[in-house]
Amino acid sequence: MKEKGGQRNGRVKILCLAALLLVGFLSVHGQYVINNPNKPLAPNAGRILKLQEVWRITDEGGEFFFKYPNKLKIADDGRILLADREELLEFSADGVFLKNLFKKGQGPGEIGGSFTYIIAGNELYVKDYSQRRIFRMDLSGRYIDQLNLEQSYDNLIGVRDDGYLFIKSVWPPAEEMTGKLLPILDTVKLASKDGKTVRDLHTFRTSWYMAQRAQAQWDLNIEALSDDRSLLFGSHTREYLIEVLNIAKAQIVVKFNRKYPRVRHVEEKWEDDFRKRYGLPEFEYESDVLDLLVNRDKLWVKTSSADREKGNLYDVFDFGGRYLDCFYIGSGRTLLGARGEEIFVSEKNSDESIDLVKYKIVG
Q1: What is the residue range of 88's domain?
Q2: Any residues with CB less than 8 A from the CB of 113 and at least 6 apart, and which?
Q3: What's residue 150's pLDDT?
């Protein structure tokens, strides 16, 4: 007995839907990786973004100097903060320099050396790597208070209503550092606002090459927090893989990648010297993922694919892991931050000076 075409098509649709639901369930629970194709959904993917300059900041006035600008963050009122060597620079929304919030020292509101910081509402939380403390100040630089931490942490990655998000790295014992790749355990920890209770959320594994007198990082460890501080995106391998940690559930809810043509590694002089002295293995390929940046409800992934005229290639995913788009921002530009259709980049000039530039994406 023949089955009617409509019934057969209906059953096929049901089976396909069931299969999709099953794959979605397994992917959400971290059991499968969402494997995206090489090409994203956008029909104009791979373009160089058309950019319109909004403002440009130079350090010609001498009030501050751009050396290694990084950790650009945007406050709710549009103010821009930027970290540099012994600088925490604050600019108005229209690009006017306001002040340097960095104060060298060991006292309240002072920073001993390298640091990181988080903007939460109208306040700044500064983690001084040289000391076990976080201090808090408002956006004008007025010191509020500080929290003395009972244990050391390697990085402050977020401030939530229920506490601070840290990364704590555990290294192998010294006797195992005999010239080989060893696993490093990077645990995401949620510490209460008073610092007394700490909860482990998830542990990522990275690798370092370790000898008795020298270490070299093998896998990059890159994290980015969603704007609502509910999701942590992480890349912890040289190959293309993004993992998404749900903070409240303390669970990886999705992993995704895309079919990616890997880039051959170009060796630097220090690597050759290091290998001859300590036996470092050769890097065959560059790390596929170089940075992660959250732009509202999208994740921008800086890849190792680069062009002399176009610059680095950036992939765009939604938070569910779908590969939506990819683009270049142009040679000589380093993307520091984005908010909607506005991006903030550092640009190196022919005299090696650096400008901070705000662009609007056109079209």
Answers
A1: 32-361
A2: 128, 129, 130
A3: 83
Distance CA 112, CA 135 (A): 12
Pairing of β 251-258 and β 33-36: parallel
Burial pattern 56-83, b for ≥16 Cβ within 10 A else e, equals ebebeeeebebeebeebbbbeeebbbbb
| 8 A C-beta contact, residue 217 and residue 203 | no
Residue 314 CA to residue 306 CA, distance in Å, equals: 9
Task: Please give the Cα distance from 146 to 155 (Å, whole number).
Answer: 17
Question: For 152-173, what is each residue's pLDDT tens digit?
Answer: 898 999 999 999 999 999 999 9
What is the domain count for the chain?
1
Report residue 280 as tokens. Answer: 């470092």
Q: What's the pLDDT at 53?
A: 98
**pTM to 2 decimal places:** 0.89
pLDDT of residue 212: 86
Confidence of residue 6 (pLDDT cuts 50, 70, 90): low
Burial of residue 226 (number of CB atoms within 10 Å: 0-12, 13-18, 19+): middle
Side by side, the strands of the sheet bearing 342-348 are 51-57, 354-361, 342-348, 333-339
Please tell me the total number of residues recorded for the chain in this structure: 363
Whether 264 and 255 have beta carbons less than 8 Å apart is answered as no
Cα distances (angstroms) measured from residue 149 to each of 152, 193, 223? 7, 10, 22
**Residue 26 within a domain:** no
**Tokens 């940046």 sit at which residue?**
293
CATH assignment of the domain containing 101: 2.120.10.30
Bridge-based pairing state of the strands 33-36 and 155-160:
unpaired
With contact defined as beta carbons under 8 Å apart, do 46 and 312 qualify? no
The pair phi, psi for residue 141, each rounded to 5°, is 95, 5
Residue whose C-alpha is closest to residue 225's, from 294, 167, 166:
294
Q: Which residue has the tokens 């209770």?
A: 197
Neighbours of 36 (CB within 10 A): 20
Q: Is residue 17 part of a domain?
A: no
Instruction: Tell me whether residue 261 is in a domain.
Output: yes
Query: How much is the average pLDDT of 36-47?
Result: 97
pLDDT at 131: 84
- Please provide residue 312's backbone torsions phi and psi, each rounded to the nearest 5 degrees: -80, 150
